[in-house]
C-alpha cells in the first residue's frame, strides 16, 4: 500500500495535486516489451546522435 501522504494526495482536490498525475491517473499500465524495445531503439538511433552533434 501507499504511504499516508500518497493516500492523502490521491484523495486531495485536483488543485493541490500534480496536474500530470490528474490527467494520466495513478494506475500502472502494462507495457509491451516489444514496444519498449522499439522505443529504446528509436532513441538510440535518432536522439543520441542528435544530442552528440547538437
Automatic annotation (TrEMBL):
This is Allantoate transport. It comes from Fusarium acutatum.
Amino acid at each position: 500500500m501507499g504511504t499516508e501522504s500518497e493516500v492523502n494526495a490521491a484523495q486531495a482536490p485536483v488543485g493541490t495535486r500534480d496536474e500530470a498525475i490528474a490527467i494520466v491517473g495513478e494506475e500502472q499500465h502494462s507495457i509491451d516489451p516489444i514496444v519498449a524495445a522499439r522505443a529504446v531503439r528509436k532513441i538510440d538511433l535518432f536522439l543520441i546522435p542528435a544530442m552528440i552533434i547538437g
